[in-house]
Write a structure and sequence with these properties.
Elements lengths: L13 H31 L6 H42 L1
Helix pairs in contact: 1-2
């Protein structure tokens, strides 16, 4: 069985590489979304009328940053399961 967060998952099967790439894209989009929320929220704090929406943007950005480790864990668990199935198939041959 492969350990979690093994860095060579990118060199696995075609299906594993595809899954890894999709999760990396999602992870990057979450990163950009969080950063954008914090940047816009910060600008909003310069204007009294926009402090409330700015606060919401900070909250959304924080939730997006909290989603990042969840994405990584889900990806690793899926890759781990995929590796286990490959190991079982090899043992059957």
């Amino acid at each position: 069985m492969s350990p979690l967060f093994e860095t060579d998952h990118r060199q696995g099967s075609t299906e594993q590489r595809r899954l890894y790439a999709l999760f990396e894209i999602a992870y990057t989009l979450v990163d950009f979304g969080a950063a954008l929320c914090f940047i816009v929220g910060s600008v909003f704090f310069f204007f009294d009328s926009l402090v409330f929406p700015g606060t919401w943007l900070f909250l959304i950005g924080s939730i997006l940053f909290a989603a990042k480790p969840t994405l990584r864990l889900v990806r690793e668990l899926k890759l781990l399961r995929m590796g286990d199935y490959a190991d079982i198939a090899k043992r059957r041959k």
